[in-house]
Write a structure and sequence with these properties.
The chain has 277 residues and is an alpha/beta fold. Helices cover 39% and strands 16% of the residues.
Amino acid sequence: MREWQLDQTYRSTAGTVRWNSLGQPGQEPVVLLHGTPFSSYVWRDIARTLARHHQVFVWDMPGYGQSEKFKGQDVSLAAQGEVFTELLSLWDLAEPTVIAHDFGGCVALRAHLLHGARYRALALVDPVALAPWGSPFFRLVGANAEVFEELPPALHGALVREYVGSASGPGLHPAVLDRLVQPWLDTEGQAAFYRQIAQADQRYTDEIQDRYGEITVPALVCWGQEDTWIPPVKGRELAARIPGARLEPIAGAGHLVQEDAPAELTGALLGFLGRLR
């Protein structure tokens, strides 16, 4: 597999962020947002494809992937929305097209609705956007994060592998699974894994979900039809709340659509971007 490195840094209000851009400067900008407990790595192949005709910006949120992790760090949806707004200013992007997955969907929506971030268009892929969300496992860990932080490394590693693997419908390639869990396996990463779950609070979507009718930019909602983390019915509900939004069901894909059906998702995104011209 081709290496995936983020070689740029930005000192945000929530810690140092690692980021990169692909494609030629001056092309129409596209920004990709990852979800939890993932990183920009899940966008690697789609980012490279989109970069043929767009300047594509990728980043790992504070507390995730290659970005900084530290005790006491604020990695909540509120903090990430503010950091994303900072990055758009850093990159001097007035109206990019934003494509966001899972937790990143809420980050993009909060930046747009609460912080005035302007988009040319918005594509949401199995996003965290509507209550209720959070599995029984997620709630158990969130209520007992300090206990889980003390798990022996081998047990912690097995738990993370099982949890991340469950995001895929057909199952992840072993090398992909290894790469996705790697940031969470050292001492710093183990604490960060449980920290981000402990700070996941539904109030951050409750604050905005009644405002989705205010979104006026072209919108696409893609949803893996085998998603066991967030049921596909949420995709239909979300698309109905955003004026003019188009719903694109992705057959055979679980929550990690980028890994389960990359060709189908790329095709849907390219079609969406093509209609903006």
